[in-house]
């Protein structure tokens, strides 16, 4: 049964999508079969893996969520990576989901049907804590929370923790949250915040951090570059987190 990893942070631009594609590529290099779910209307992850002649019509996440059809993963330009693509209609999906029965767990029931076909299922979420993000959280075996060690990102973390506490109580879940420090600079603010976060959250902060720099954000498949070493090491950690 494949492990579901949800990447979530309601603060925008912290590197959720960059983490999703690097993780997927590092796992694919290890011959793992990876399914990506793009739940963000911006569709950044979808376009990252698309080639000029990719046809994603009729297989988007929106159709499965609203018309209650199965998720239909599409092929990407990486043979070990499939994707359920996003499109702009997701931007108001919360309104359409609001009337549905068991609306928080629609995605989880669909993901479960595919879990045997993949080693890892990675869900990239939008920068909000709406219904589709809650659906994505309720699929998760583990949660990755990207965080820039700065006050605004830590505020975002506090909002996620409050939501997780409520979901834990209401849905009888026990979320395992793992913080990934991203865009880390060699400044005294970042060093101080990193050490505060490590003393507050202990092992929940991944050992491997991702530094601030263009090579971490580069499109490795399109420029045929290797993923940055830091993502390779982080992938090891994420695989360990998800070991039974
Ligand atoms: N380690 C890094 N160092 C420098 N720039 C980075 C790093 N990681 C990502 N970026 C850049 O930061 C920007 C935001 O990254 P990304 O789109 O992955 O964030 P996001 O959290 O998915 O954003 P959104 O909330 O809009 O979905 C992009 O331009 C990306 O290339
Ligand atoms: Mg994104």
Describe this protein with a few key phrases.
alpha/beta, 7-stranded mixed β-sheet, single chain, Rossmann fold, binds magnesium ion
Characterise this structure:
- The chain has 244 residues and is α/β, with parallel strands linked by helices.
- It is built from eleven helices and seven strands.
- It has a domain of 170 residues: P-loop containing nucleotide triphosphate hydrolases (Rossmann fold, 3-Layer(aba) Sandwich).
- Helices cover 42% and strands 13% of the residues.
- The protein has a seven-stranded mixed beta sheet with strand order 3-4-2-5-1-6-7, with helices on both faces.
- Helix 1 packs across helix 11.
- The chain starts with a strand and ends with a helix.
Chain-averaged pLDDT: 91
Q: Spell out the helices and strands N to C.
A: EHEHHEEHHEHEHEHHHH
**Rg (C-alpha, Å):** 17 Å
Number of helices: 11
Strand residue content: 5-15%
What's the CATH first level of the domain at 3-143 and 213-241? Alpha Beta
How many strand elements? 7
Ligands bound, unique: adenosine-5'-triphosphate, magnesium ion
* Class based on secondary structure composition and strand pairing: alpha/beta
- Cα(first) to Cα(last) distance is 11 Å
* CATH homologous superfamily title of the domain at 3-143 and 213-241: P-loop containing nucleotide triphosphate hydrolases
Shape: globular
Q: Going across the major beta sheet, what is the strand order? A: 3-4-2-5-1-6-7
Low-pLDDT runs: none
Helix fraction?
Answer: 40-55%
Largest sheet: 7 strands, mixed
Which CATH architecture of the domain at 3-143 and 213-241 would you pick? 3-Layer(aba) Sandwich
């Amino acid at each position: 049964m494949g492990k579901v990893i949800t990447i979530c942070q309601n603060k925008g631009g912290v590197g959720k999508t960059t983490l999703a594609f690097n993780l997927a590529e590092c796992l694919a290099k290890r011959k793992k079969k990876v399914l990506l779910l793009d739940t963000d209307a911006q569709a950044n992850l979808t376009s990252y893996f698309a080639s000029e002649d990719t046809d994603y019509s009729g297989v988007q996440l929106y159709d499965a969520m609203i018309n209650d059809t199965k998720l239909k993963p599409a092929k990407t330009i990486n043979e070990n990576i499939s994707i359920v693509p996003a499109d702009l209609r997701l931007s108001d999906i919360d309104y359409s989901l609001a009337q549905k029965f068991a609306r928080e767990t629609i995605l989880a029931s669909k993901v479960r049907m595919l879990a045997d076909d993949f080693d890892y299922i990675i869900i990239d979420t939008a920068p909000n804590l709406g219904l589709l993000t809650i659906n994505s959280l309720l699929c998760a075996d583990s949660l990755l929370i990207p965080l820039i060690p700065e006050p605004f990102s830590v505020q975002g973390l506090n909002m996620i923790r409050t939501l997780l506490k409520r979901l834990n109580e209401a849905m009888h879940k026990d979320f395992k949250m793992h913080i990934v420090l991203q865009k880390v600079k060699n400044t005294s603010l970042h060093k101080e915040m990193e050490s505060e976060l490590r003393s507050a959250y202990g092992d929940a902060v991944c050992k491997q951090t991702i530094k601030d720099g263009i090579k971490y954000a580069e499109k490795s498949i399109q420029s045929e570059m290797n993923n940055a070493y830091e993502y390779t090491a982080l992938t090891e950690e994420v695989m360990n987190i998800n070991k039974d």
